[in-house]
Amino acid sequence: MKRIALLGATGSIGRQALEIIGSDPELELVAAASGSRSIDGVAPLTQVGGDMTELLDRAKPDLVLNAVVGFAGLPATLWALERGVDLALANKESLVAAGDLATAAWRRGGGRLLPVDSEHSAALQCLEGRTPEMVHSLVLTASGGPFRRRGRDELANVTPTEALAHPTWNMGPKITVDSATLANKGLELIEAHFLFGLDYDRIEVVIHPTSTVHALVRFRDGASLAHLGYPDMRVPISFALTFPERAPAPIPPLDLASGLTLEFEAPDLETFPLLALARRAGEEGGTYPCAFNAANEVAVEAFLAGRLSFLAIAETVEETLASVDGKPASELTELIEADAEARRLAQRTATTA
Ligand SMILES: NC(=O)c1ccc[n+]([C@@H]2O[C@H](COP(=O)([O-])OP(=O)(O)OC[C@H]3O[C@@H](n4cnc5c(N)ncnc54)[C@H](OP(=O)(O)O)[C@@H]3O)[C@@H](O)[C@H]2O)c1
Fold it and tell me: 70 CA to middle of ligand 1, Å?
C-alpha cells in the first residue's frame, strides 16, 4: 500500500487523482487538503486552508501529490523534497518560483520528484535510463490555446470566457488562462530546466494543436523518442502515483487508424510574449523566475476578475520583471520577500493598466 496525501483535492487535478486513487487498491488516501471548499469525509485526515505542512506532519505519507494552484503550494513542495518523501508535483509554480532552493532540498532529501504536468511526465519517460550527455534537446509541445493563429489586434478585447475555452484540455481557470497566453509553456520551460538539469538552449517549445505528442527528446545519435497519448491528465497522474509500476488506468489505447495526424508549428512569440519573457527570466536566473510567476499570478487574477485586459497580462509581467533586481535568494525568507515585492509591483502596474 502506498499512503498518499492529496493537496488541492477539490481542483481539476485533485478530483481526477481521487478517481485514480479510488480505483487502485494499492493506493490509500491518508490525508487531503483544499484551500476553501469543504472536503469532509474524503480522507481520514482533512484540512481546509491553513498550513498544509501541519497536515503532512500528522499524516506521514509515502507520497505527496501537490495539486494546489500557485505559489501557495511551495511549503508542501519543500516539505516533501527536504524529507525525501516522494513528491508527485502538479504545482509547477512552486518549482518555478523556488527552483534553486527546491532542487537543493531535493538533493538533500533524496526522494523522487515525479512531475504530473503531462509534458514533463512524458519527458521523464523518454529520458528514463539515459544520461544528460546523450541528450541533444528536449521538445515541449503546446496546444497553442484558444487564440492560436490570432494576431495582437484580435486579442485586445477577448474576455475571460473566451480565454477559458481551451481546445484540448479541461483544467482549472488559472492554468487555462496561462495556456491561452502561453505563460503556461513558459512556466513549463523553467520547470523542465530544474527537473532535468538541461540548459535553456536545449529546451524547445513547439505548437502541436491536438496535444497528442506530449514531449519529444532528441538524442546525440540522431534518434528521437516521443511520448504520445490522448490529452487526459489521468495518465500522468496515474503514472506519478503508481511509479514505477505503471498500473492500469481507465484510458483507451491510442487509435492510430482513426485519422490521427501530427501537426507542428513554431510559436508566435510576438503575439504571445510571455513565453519569451519566461525564457529570459529563466536564463537570468536568481529570483527572476519567482517574479515572473508572482506577476503572472497577480495579472491572471485581475484578468479573470475583469480588471485587466488580456494583452495587459504580459505587459504587467514585463514591467514587473523590468523593476525587480532578480537577486538570488539564499533562503526561503528571501524568496518569500522577492515574491511579495513582485506582487506589489504587479498590483501597481495592473491597477494603472
Ligand atoms: N488541471 C490540469 O489539467 C493541470 C495540468 C497540468 C498541471 N496542472 C497544475 O496543477 C495545479 C492545480 O491545477 P488545477 O487546474 O487542478 O487547479 P484548480 O482546479 O483551480 O484547483 C486548485 C486547487 O488548489 C486548492 N488551493 C488553492 N489555494 C490554496 C491554498 N492557499 N491552500 C490550499 N489549497 C489551495 C484549491 O482549493 P479550493 O477549491 O478549496 O479553493 C483547489 O483544490 C496547478 O499548479 C496547475 O498548473 C494542472
Answer: 7
Q: Encode 186-225: b = buried (16+ Cβ within 10 Å), e = exposed.
A: bbbbbbbbbbbebebeebbbbbbbebbbbbbbbeeeeeeb
β-strand partners of 16: none
CA of 136 to the centre of ligand 1 (A): 33
CB 46 within 8 A of CB 72: no
pLDDT of residue 198: 95
Q: In which residue are the cell numbers 499512503 written? A: 3
How far, in Å, is the centroid of ligand 1 from the Cα of 180? 17
Q: Rounded to an integer, what distance in angstroms lies between the CA atom of residue 64 and that of residue 106? A: 14
Q: Which residues line ligand 1 (CB under 6 A)?
A: 8-14, 33-37, 52, 67-69, 72, 90-93, 117, 169, 171-175, 233
> Which residue from 6, 10, 13 has its CB within 8 A of the most atoms of ligand 1, so it is best to mutate?
13
Nearest Cα neighbor of 91 from 72, 67, 112, 75 is 67
Reading the block at residue 345, the C-alpha cell is 509591483
- Look up residue 328 and give its DSSP letter: P
Distances (CA, A) of 307 to 129, 180, 181, 340: 48, 17, 17, 20
Q: Write the residue with the smallest CA distance to atom 32 of ligand 1.
A: 35
Nearest residue (CA) to ligand 1, atom 10: 90
Cα of 35 to ligand 1 centre, how many Å? 9
Which residues does 229 contact at the CB level (< 8 Å), separation at least 6?
A: 122, 212, 214, 235, 251, 254
DSSP string, 173-241: HHHHHHHHHTHHHHHHHHHHHHHH---GGGEEEEE-TT--EEEEEEETTS-EEEEE--S-THHHHHHHH
Q: Which of 48, 175, 237 to mutate to test the pocket of ligand 1 (most atoms within 8 A of CB)?
A: 175
Q: 3-class SS at 113? A: strand
Task: Give the pLDDT confidence of 184-196 residue by residue, as tens digits.
Answer: 999 999 999 999 9
pLDDT per residue as tens digits for the range 2-48: 999 999 999 999 999 999 999 999 999 999 999 999 999 999 999 99
